[in-house]
Amino acid sequence: MNKILFSAAIACLALSFTVNFKAKNSAEKMQDFIIDISNYTRKMNPNFIIIPQNGAELAFTKAKTDKGFNQKFLDAIDGFGIEELFYNETLKPDEYRIGLLNKIKATETIIVSEFVKDTALVDDSYERNDNEGFLCFTRTEDNYHYTLIPTKVHNENKNSVEKLSDIKNFLYIINNSNYYSKSAFITALKNTNYDLIFMDLYHNGVKFNKEEIEQLKVKKNGGKRLVIGYMNIGAAEKFRYYWKRTWQLNNPKWLKKKYDGYEDEIWVEYWNREWQDIIYGNESSYAKKVVDAGFDGVYLDNVEAYYFLHND
What we know:
Layout: H1 3-23, H2 26-44, E1 49-52, H3 71-76, E2 79-83, H4 95-104, E3 109-115, H5 122-132, E4 135-139, E5 171-173, H6 182-190, E6 196-199, E7 202-203, E8 206-207, H7 210-215, E9 226-232, E10 235-237, E11 255-258, E12 265-268, H8 273-279, H9 286-292, E13 297-301
Parallel strand pairs: 1-13, 2-3, 3-4, 5-6, 6-9, 9-13
Antiparallel strand pairs: 7-8, 10-12, 11-12
């Protein structure tokens, strides 16, 4: 094919891709993003675990709950993480999301992070989730930012855990600022019997390495456990290695919207290729770093960005 015809063909393909891509709504673009992350990481590790947090509608075709399951999306994930299900700002159970999760739980592990201001409600939060077949980690006001390791493990389990469906409990500690060193943090985690640990890839800007992560894959009681890395895919974080000093809201253009309550984060146009290149698909991507560090999977935060960035 001569250069002129070749260039014309490429232009037509690009135009076709753009039209088809724009025809998708914001939720579908998030579905595609997560599927692509899953495909990329599972090429390196076929057993790599993918867990999106929030956005339960993504389990359904076009994120429409009356259109049946999106099987391609469900095949790309292993579970759903959900925040504040029975206890939230309304102080009432979120019956809408509970209904969705009860449909999803037949094939996906449901992992719930609750927040209660009254410590007397901790046991009730666990009981409510247990009754629905959801796994739960409840934090109180002193642990609002996921900084503490509770000494009591709900549904403590002596058995080894090989896959996500084996877990009986989990620890959610994505902020390790209470620990002065990586070694102190590792020691604290090793002395627990949690079946699964959600944690950050970094401590004070320094990555955990594969040897360190391997140490965490054994519970204090000797059983195996899973260690899952945290990765924010819906908002850019100003304290991450990829952040550039010149960046600000709308510069680059895909830094789209202020994240209320989080000054160090900005909602991103997550379907933008520049952002996606930061997250997956190349040697310097965040997902590649998580895989290389030896994590069993990745916990995808802020997938509900499609609520705030409509491009329908």
